[in-house]
Design brief:
heterodimer; A: about 210 residues; alpha/beta; 10 helices; B: NADH Oxidase; two-stranded antiparallel sheet
Chain lengths: ~210, ~230
């Protein structure tokens, strides 16, 4: 049965996934085990996305299925287990840039993968990032930007973190249409994610999740 | 200055899928196809597209290095454009938009916890802007032909040779505000589903395909929306 959930989720068969989860919950299966299987299914989705077998809408669809699974399982989890998140992430599109769709996808995928995400929106002033990092103590920051003009904003945001004394306390990832390793070096970020799954993988790595 | 509204747009499924990041090497699952069809119906029923084009065609008095002299306009200095269209006798400048309604619906879907609908609708919006741009090109080409001239392929800020910072100059040449388009302080067009373009007009003008534009772009290997030859 466990294998079925992993495979069915990996194949993005939403209805079947829901039926399997309901059936396992009714049978008294451990809700954490169900979530673990769902996570394994998402890993396969990530691999299929990386190998171009799946495209971006498939990835978001998988996130919606995972969210529905989590919603089904949630009432069966104990309070302590339910509130356990993988880590906090402050995320936003940097000042001057108003593109949100890419940012929204990464925020959603981080959220469904168990992170507590503080989405600051678009055109976020540098100080707002700094304030949110201080307020939440989030150890991970995501800076999104679609246009080349975002490079300087990303650099300025990271410099503001340095000036505020929080740069050493956070890992910063950047992402967006034009981002490359050269841009990462220019901005002073720790890493760049070429897509939403890369962003999730980085966050998991930095949060120490196996 | 001409402003055109109520332009019929034909959204081809291949173009919509390309704007959803579909590169043709993976299959589109039925759930996604059904949702795209449903969203296209919503776009039509809820009138989410309000296509409009504002354009102007100027006679070029002189092109001198990075300076462009247009009839009835002050000198436009420090512009990359002249080097791209040295043989042009006239310059058409256009701004196209599908209006703000579709992108508001995208935001609503996303904030209501429906990111898949949001991203698919966003892709439909991008395909609509592409289609509108084609209509603008047809309009300008037709005017060029009526005077015995040819029209070049379009060039938009952000394409190779035309920095996005030149958006400011271009928007001074068309009545963008009449179709509700403005620039943010960083030079991004609002509504976001808008595009500006220039077309050279003259006896013999260069033409290129969209695939050729993609092939010259520095994102040619990674862009999920690239067009292959």
């Amino acid at each position: 049965m466990a294998k079925d959930l992993v495979k069915t989720l990996a194949d993005l068969k939403e209805q079947e996934v829901m039926e399997i989860v309901k059936s396992r919950l009714s049978a008294g299966d451990d809700p954490l085990k169900i979530l673990e299987d769902a996570r394994k299914g998402m890993e396969i989705v990530g691999k299929r996305f990386a190998s171009s077998e799946y495209f971006i809408p498939d990835l978001v669809y998988s996130g919606e299925i995972l969210r529905a699974v989590t919603e089904l399982v949630k009432p069966k989890l104990s309070k302590t287990t339910e509130s356990k998140k993988l880590g906090k992430v402050v995320f936003g599109t940097v000042a001057g840039d108003i593109h949100d769709i890419g940012k929204d996808i990464v925020v959603f995928m981080l959220d469904v993968n168990g992170f507590e995400v503080y989405d600051l929106g678009v055109d976020v002033p540098v100080q707002k990032f700094v304030e949110k990092i201080k307020e939440t103590g989030a150890p991970i920051v995501g800076l999104s930007g679609f246009l080349t003009l975002a490079f300087d904003s990303m650099k300025q945001t990271i410099e503001a973190m340095k000036a505020a004394g929080v740069r050493d306390k956070v890992k910063v990832m950047i992402g967006g249409g034009q981002i490359s390793e050269e841009v990462r070096k220019y901005t002073g970020a720790d890493a760049y994610g070429k897509d939403a799954m890369a962003g999730v993988a980085l966050a998991k790595q930095w949060a120490g999740v196996k | 200055m001409p402003v055109v509204h109520d332009i019929p747009l034909s959204l081809k499924s291949g173009e919509v899928l390309r704007r959803e990041g579909f590169m043709g090497y993976s299959k589109v699952r039925p759930e996604i196809r059904i949702l795209i069809r449903e969203l296209l119906a919503i776009v039509q029923k809820a009138h989410l597209l309000e296509p409009a084009i504002a354009y102007e065609i100027y006679t070029i008095i002189e092109i001198r290095q990075r300076q462009l002299f247009l009839a009835g306009k002050p000198l436009i200095p420090d512009l990359s454009l002249p080097s791209l269209l040295p043989q042009a006798k006239e310059l058409a400048v256009a701004v196209c938009t599908i209006g703000p309604r579709l992108e508001k619906q995208v935001t609503d879907y996303t904030s209501q916890g429906e990111p898949l609908r949001g991203m698919l609708l966003d892709g439909i919006g991008s395909a609509a802007v592409d289609s509108l741009m084609e209509e603008a090109c047809k309009l300008i080409t037709s005017e060029a032909l009526s005077r015995g001239y040819e029209a070049s392929s379009p060039i938009s800020p952000g394409m190779l040779g035309l920095p996005i910072t030149e958006q400011w100059q271009l928007l001074k040449l068309v009545p963008a505000q009449e179709i509700g388009v403005s620039l943010t302080s960083a030079g991004i067009m609002v509504p976001r589903k808008s595009v500006s373009l220039v077309i050279g007009i003259g006896p013999r003008m260069a033409k290129w395909t969209r695939a050729e534009v993609c092939a010259r772009c520095h994102l040619k290997k990674t862009c999920p929306y690239r067009i292959s030859a």
